[in-house]
Task: inverse folding
């Protein structure tokens, strides 16, 4: 039992980090905190894949030694190198992680522009109140448009008078 | 794998993850998340995944932190939970 727990400690670590991220995504009310939880969740998954490729005992990075000079006296021993396939897969996953982070930040900024808050309960309250914030935005825009229109008309009439 | 180094890294990663989601100041939370990314990077280096480590250090730890700092600067810095 002890060997089972300590021998698979990468799995326990991955599960723990994943649950921390999942808790932050579910229970935290702040949107930035939710994004941080998503980041932790994704890097926990990457940690799981990378830890399946690691080996114990004098394992080096997957770069071949004696590949050019050797004349077939010894082949490549796979046990001396870490498995490079999960590394390549997880390089793609890291890039996807940053892309999702950028999209999430952009959506958060749009929400802040519209509702003036990034707390989830306040946003829900403002939506329930009957979308007071969007109406103000529309009002402001229509006022600006009417002002522009008026100045335009005045300008034209002045031109005509001249 | 060096076991004591591994244990210390795991400890720091867990402390950083829990601190990043419990701190009320959002700028501190983002900086702690950057520290978490760099500890993750060290862990991957000692798991012999060097390419993943430097991609994480350049992409996730730096660009991600910059994006989140920008988001905190554009919105509010205090959080309720």
Result:
């Amino acid at each position: 039992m002890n060997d089972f727990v300590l021998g698979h400690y990468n799995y326990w670590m991955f599960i723990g980090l994943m649950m921390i991220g999942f808790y932050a995504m579910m229970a935290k009310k702040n949107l930035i905190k939710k994004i941080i939880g998503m980041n932790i969740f994704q890097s926990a998954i990457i940690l799981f894949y990378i830890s399946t490729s690691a080996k114990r005992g004098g394992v080096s990075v997957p770069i071949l030694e004696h590949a050019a000079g050797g004349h077939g006296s010894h082949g490549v021993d796979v046990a001396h190198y870490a498995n490079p396939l999960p590394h390549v897969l997880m390089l793609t996953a890291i890039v996807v992680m940053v892309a999702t982070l950028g999209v999430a930040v952009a959506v958060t900024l749009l929400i802040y522009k519209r509702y003036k808050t990034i707390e989830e309960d306040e946003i829900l309250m403002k939506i329930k109140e009957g979308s007071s914030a969007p109406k103000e935005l529309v009002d402001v825009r229509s006022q600006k448009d009417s002002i522009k229109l008026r100045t335009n008309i005045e300008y034209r009439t002045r031109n005509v008078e001249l | 794998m060096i076991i004591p180094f591994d244990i210390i890294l795991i400890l720091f990663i867990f402390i950083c993850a829990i601190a990043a989601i419990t701190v009320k100041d959002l700028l501190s939370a983002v900086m702690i998340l950057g520290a978490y990314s760099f500890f993750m990077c060290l862990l991957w280096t000692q798991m012999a995944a060097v390419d993943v480590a430097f991609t994480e250090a350049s992409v996730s730890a730096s660009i991600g932190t910059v994006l989140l700092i920008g988001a905190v600067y554009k919105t509010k810095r205090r959080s309720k939970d």
Notes: Residues 12 and 39 of chain B are 7 Å apart (CA to CA). The interface with chain A takes residues 1, 10, 13-14, 17-18, 20-21, 26, 29-30, 33, 36-37, 40, 43-44, 47-52, 55-56, 59-60, 63-64, 67-68, 70-72, 74-76, 79-81 of chain B (CB under 8 Å).
